[in-house]
Amino acid sequence: MPEITPVKEPKILIAGAGIGGLTVAILLEKAGIEYQLFERDEQVCTQGSATGLGFNVMPLLEQLGLLEELKSISKIIDGTTIFKEDMEIIREIRLRNNKTLTGYDSLVTSRPQLHALLSSRVPQEKVHMNKKIVSLTQDSESVTITCADGSSYTGDILIGADGSYSSVRQALYNEMKKENILPNNTEDGDVSLVSHYMSILGTTNPMNPANFEGLQDDESHCDTVIGEERGLTWRYFTIPNNRICWRVDVQSSSMDPKLYENWLNADYNMFDVSQLPEEWKQHKLPIMGELKDLFENTPKESISKVVLEEKIFETWKHGRTVLIGDAAHRLLPNFGALNAILDAVVLVNCLYEMPSATDKHIAKAFDDYYLERFPTTKRELNSVQQMSTVLAGKTWLDTAARFVLLKLVPKYFKEKSLEYTLSYRPQALFLPRIETKGTAPLTPQRPSKKYAVYLKAQASTSTTAL
Questions:
Q1: Which residues pair with residue 453 across a beta bridge?
Q2: Dmax over Cα atoms in the chain, in whole Å?
Q3: Backbone dihedral angles phi then psi of residue 393, each to the nearest 5 degrees
Q4: Do 429 and 451 touch, CB atoms closer than 8 A?
Q5: CB atoms within 10 A of CB 183
Q6: HEC profile for 231-269?
Q7: How far apart, in whole angstroms, are the C-alpha atoms of residue 325 and residue 313?
């Protein structure tokens, strides 16, 4: 009788302990797949502002047992209002009907709290801090990473979830350049990113409800103010415990270069708000108060600056290495977490379905992941760019577009939501499926044959035991 070759289960290396990397780790833990997580920093970054999570990730979070705890640290987004600087309302957008369509509320929380929630679900012995990846090598059998401290680790698959300035992406592209296989007709050869605008952001300590309207409301006040000064917009989200997540967005192409030339450095750096023009601090807030009230009540060490680039790399995979989240595509911060979570569940579903960790099966899994996520992310980028122009653009064409689109806002946003947010709600194929909620049609998701076999075997074992 011929000898049967045992199935090789994959060993996964994850670069980056951000939202995407942690979600991958949680999913692999649930799927029973071996992994190790590597973070370049010595400690977890506690900076950041609001993170909005929409309907398309809610079934997954419910599957993972995270939804109820997420609700406890979040507020419901019932709508948003766009103001002029003089507090004249440009448009109110209500989202009440979306719960009927999807069965879920949209939620907003602070990025540090979401990160802490995800981190609590990952066994700490599988997380390695201060492990900045400086190079990688891969062949038909394995992939090996080398870290700045000289240590190295080998696995079957490397997932680059290490952010916009991804070391994995840079190492992967350098390898592909040497092999002369990096596409020449894309921007992938340039691993640097070009800034379109920046955000100064933070989350306040608890504020006095007597000084800010609606701070204790169950729903979040999500307001955007379009400043008179070209390229300047500020927004905020109220969250539990009387706190406010805030952002000041600056379009670099529209501002005096002297104002922002010193801000163009690494992502999520600490930022001293004293660098901002004094007149900005006096800008009014629709919930009362001024921007300076938010600045003064936010811990200095938690105020950060993020350079915002809107870019999708064409190359997400090669050999045994694959990219997710900001390492593969760079959208706005409030969309980054959501898209990283979607990348994670689609990729892990594909890895779970692999018969074994051979080159052929890995390539098929990566292809399936890319074919699902790349077109969807491309559409999302186009939507984000349109909204950026509408909310912050200052040319006469931008003003005209804002007038037209905001006057058509109910129809426009409904179409955009139904196209992407409402219908696209992927779940983990290897966990009990959450029953479909709401009336909106879902994007079909192919069931897992592997999980069906597992359930059948479980049922058979239970029957035998009886």
A1: none
A2: 84
A3: -65, 145
A4: yes
A5: 11
A6: CEEEEEEEECCCEEEEEEEEEHHHCCHHHHHHHCCCCCE
A7: 11
Residue type, 294: L
Q: Which bin fits 431, alpha (ψ -120 to 50), beta or left (φ > 0)?
A: beta
Distance CA 157, CA 464 (A): 37
3-state secondary structure at position 395: coil
Rounded to 5 degrees, φ, ψ at 219 are -90, 150
All domains of the chain in start order, with CATH: 11-192+310-449 (3.50.50.60)
Do residues 383 and 416 lie in contact, with contact meaning Cβ atoms separated by under 8 Å?
yes
The 3-state DSSP class for residue 60 equals helix
Q: Which of 307, 284, 287, 306 is nearest to 237 (CA)?
A: 287
Q: What is the pLDDT along the chain (466 residues), one digit of tens a residue?
A: 334 344 567 999 999 999 999 999 999 999 999 999 999 988 876 677 889 898 889 999 999 999 999 999 999 998 889 898 999 988 887 777 788 888 999 999 999 999 999 999 999 999 999 999 999 999 999 999 999 999 999 999 999 999 888 999 999 999 999 999 888 655 565 545 445 577 889 999 999 999 999 999 999 999 999 888 777 889 999 999 999 999 998 876 555 555 555 555 445 578 888 888 899 999 999 999 999 999 999 999 889 887 766 678 889 999 999 999 989 987 655 567 889 999 999 999 999 999 999 999 999 999 999 999 998 887 776 665 555 555 555 555 565 555 555 555 545 454 554 555 678 899 999 999 999 998 888 888 888 888 888 888 888 776 665 5
Whole-angstrom distance, CA of residue 280 vs CA of residue 278: 5
259 token code pair? 């104002």
Q: What is the 3-state secondary structure (H, E, C) of 292-339?
A: HHHHHCCCHHHCEEEEECCEECCCCEECCEEECHHHCEECCHHHHHHH
Cα separation of 23 and 6, whole Å? 29
CA dist 18 and 21 (Å) reads 5
Six token digits for residue 84: 């002029």
